[in-house]
Amino acid sequence: MAAKDLVLRGLMSPIKPMMEEAHRVLEGELHDPSPAAQDMLAHISRFKGKQMRGAMLLLSGKATGAYSDEHPTMAAVIEMIHLATLVHDDVLDGAEVRRRVASVNQRWDNQVAVLLGDFLYTRAFGLSLTLSNRYCSRVLAETSRKICVGEIEQSAMRYHFDLPQADYERIAGAKTACLMSSACELGARYPEGGVSSERDAYGDEMAAYGWEIGLAFQIVDDCLDLEGDPEKVGKSLGVDAEDGKITLPILAVYRDADETIREKIREVYTVPDLDRRAARLHDVCDVSLGIEVAMARAKDLVDSAIARVSALPKSASRRALIEIGDYVLVRKW
Amino acid sequence: MAAKDLVLRGLMSPIKPMMEEAHRVLEGELHDPSPAAQDMLAHISRFKGKQMRGAMLLLSGKATGAYSDEHPTMAAVIEMIHLATLVHDDVLDGAEVRRRVASVNQRWDNQVAVLLGDFLYTRAFGLSLTLSNRYCSRVLAETSRKICVGEIEQSAMRYHFDLPQADYERIAGAKTACLMSSACELGARYPEGGVSSERDAYGDEMAAYGWEIGLAFQIVDDCLDLEGDPEKVGKSLGVDAEDGKITLPILAVYRDADETIREKIREVYTVPDLDRRAARLHDVCDVSLGIEVAMARAKDLVDSAIARVSALPKSASRRALIEIGDYVLVRKW
Fold it and tell me: Which residue in A has a C-alpha nearest to residue B112's C-alpha?
């Protein structure tokens, strides 16, 4: 197990039994009487990953005192929506490997990946409807919409080398930051959904914490895509350049480059049938300068997120929320 | 306007103002502040079609006396889920034309079609959560799951020439019949969801009516795919054979054919890079025999559905529900 995974496992210790309960709920949902559906679902359970979003929901509930016996179910719902976005991403990106397991669209075809993602979305909504309060369903319907719109915008913004950083952050944030933000907000606010003013203040702060952690996480991901080790990261890298996605490190390099270098960068992205685009980027510009800018921004976001949870009453869960911030940066550094 | 569309317009007259209200709600949902999302949504509104599922929900509500001012919103929700399945179908089938509008995956790419379908699903769930009762959300989460599983099974059952007819009906029914069944059940049962015994009986009958009408509709679709006029049907035809889907007319022909003909049928489906597979089917076997069997089954289903609604109190809406049965068959005959 990599050092970073040991760190993460340590962070989860205050919520170990709740994570196990969330995991049991999740596994229970990944079954279907149809043998064809079951065949795919057995495969998907191997994608389950670190379950960070579910953990953040539980930690947020514990740290703010809002924890209820419905929190593990919400954690499972959040993880299912995350799984659905991963499966549909595999259709989108053409990524060939994710977490060292053949991705769904490799093992079956795109059509089945679309359906499996749909299945996960609908099961997630169905599970949320078993909760005593509709607040979770409402938050998740709205969050899922934002994730879609963010990805639609990301697709529309491909090859936009002059994208303002604020637009990049809004769009890049729609995927990871939105869901982490909703996880933390639900953890702090369910089931009242903003009835008491103390709960409201916690909900707002935890939503902002989740957004900042999620955006930092995405920025680190963008950096890893440019210079990570595929073995360690456990998924295909260099796909952003293949897909025409201009991420923060490249935006930063492009912004500060002269026209000669800018032209070369555009060529690497746009000349048809070019192979190894990400590797070629390193030949035509100093990618490390962009990564420095991006990682500084990630660090600022994490600092802000940590300051927010530092205001919570002292607890093991608060400590874990703080350390998640450090962990997000350690993935890269 | 084709004669069949005039027929359909006449059927809708008892619920004209409610259909207009449902349409207003639907149009209101097909907006988003994001320009990129809006660009796609403007296109999708041209897909809206006959809105039969929404109409069936409203007619079911009127004919059973369950109609409430929340019914038009439910009709809009049903239509949005239907739209989502159409958009994701376009990813699945590689169909090139649907309702004479360039299909979403032609105008944009697969990745955007996946996201747009996701957007429609999440907006549909979000809209259902504005209703006073969770019953509609629960029915639709479960229905959407069944639709996915049905399509997953359909994909798994490609090239199964010995598929028993009951399995074909269960799988083929998962798409159209499930959603029509839920539309009719919701119309009759919302909001109580089975509290009174009279409402329960109506709900069960209307669910069965919707299933039978929907399955008949799908069988007719399968026949049209084999021998319809693309101009009149308004979408690509012959795609089932391209996709390896063995539909009821072909199952019936294959079942009754000798081994020589069976082998030729299998070849038409499976020889790589063959063009015009559907047309070639007509060369190697008598497709009209299979269509006769399939249409006889569709007629039986419609007869059963009509008998169910004939037991309802006499009304213009009951009349329309009966005529929808006739309309489903007229599409072909």
Answer: A152
Is ipTM > 0.90 here? no
Tell me what pLDDT residue B101 has. Answer: 54
Cβ atoms of B214 and B179 closer than 8 Å? yes
Considering its fold, how many domains does chain B have in total?
Answer: 1
Regarding beta strands B97-98 and A97-98, do their DSSP bridges make them parallel or antiparallel, or are they unpaired? unpaired
pLDDT over 80 (residue B6): no
Strand, helix or coil for residue B235: strand
Q: In CATH, what number is assigned to the domain containing residue B109?
A: 1.10.600.10
- The predicted model gives A51-60 an average pLDDT of 95
Cβ atoms B266, B227 nearer than 8 A: no
- Of A110, A121, A145, nearest to B126 by CB-CB distance is A145
Question: Among partner residues B34, B138, B148, which is closest to A149 by beta-carbon distance?
Answer: B34
Residue A129 DSSP class: T
Cα–Cα dist A163/A169, whole Å = 10
Q: Give the bridge partners for B101, in sequence order.
A: B98
Asked whether residue B171 carries a pLDDT value surpassing 50, the answer given is yes
| Mean pLDDT across A154-162 | 90
**In the predicted model, is pLDDT for residue B99 greater than 50?**
no
CA neighbours within 13 Å on the CB side: how many for A278?
22
Domain with A92, as residue range(s), is: 3-330
The DSSP annotation for A271-325 comes to STT-S-HHHHHHHHS-HHHHHHHHHHHHHHHHHHHHHHHHTSPP-HHHHHHHHHH
